[in-house]
Amino acid sequence: MYKKFTDEELVDLLKSGKDKAFDELYFRYRDILVRFVYLRMKSVAISEEIVQEVFTSIWERRKTIVIQKSFAAYIYTSVRYMTLDYIKSYAVSDQYIQEVLEKNTVSYGSQNATEDAVYYEELQKAVDKATMLLPKKSKEVFILSRIKHYSNKEIADELNVSIETVKYHITYALKFMRTYLGEFN
Asked: Could you give the CA distance from residue 62 to residue 85 in angstroms, rounded to a whole number?
């Protein structure tokens, strides 16, 4: 039914409470946006996650969304910025994990300093890899909680989510890290 409408008409219908208009916009742009992100990220899962987050944001702001130009320009710009944010979050993640691990590599008078250095180098690689494998929100919460030492309330405020959501992501990230890093226990 909504296929014949323009993007701008669909946005107006969405603002007026027609949820099916959102579905039409989603199905019009989802696949092409995933391919667009994939060219940069080289991961289908990450590409789908980024596109999903952009559409979730649109859904949450559906009644108040303001689009200056065309919807296509708006959605591509949103996806591009979300992709850049995702890339930046990897860089920040690597930086903080590196700092934490460097603090832990200080020799405590160990007779096996070389062995300790090798152990921590392996641990660092494993932590980096595990962090990269976390879903974006879980990774953000993990970094804010365990590396930047934010409280659950501060994380909830920063990411605009509930405290329960923060607790869920912390639990998920820690369980994932424990499983992934099991050999280092």
From this structure: 22
Q: pLDDT tens digits, residue range 77-133?
A: 999 988 887 777 665 555 555 555 555 544 444 455 666 667 667 777 777 788 788
Task: Report whether 135 contacts 49 (CB < 8 A).
Answer: yes
Sequence-separated contacts (24+) of 53-61 with Cβ below 8 Å: 53/82, 53/136, 54/78, 54/79, 54/82, 55/26, 55/30, 58/22, 58/25, 59/22
Two structure tokens written together for 64:
């108040």
For residues 106 and 129, what is the distance between their CA atoms, to the nearest angstrom?
A: 22
Inter-residue contact 140 to 174 (CB < 8 Å)? no
CB atoms within 10 A of CB 58: 20
Q: Decide if 136 contacts 93 (C-beta within 8 A).
A: no
Roughly how many angstroms between the first and final C-alpha of the chain, as a whole number?
Answer: 57
> Residue 135 CA to chain centroid, in angstroms?
6
d(CA 75, CA 92): 25
For the question of whether the overall pTM of this predicted structure is more than 0.90, the answer is no
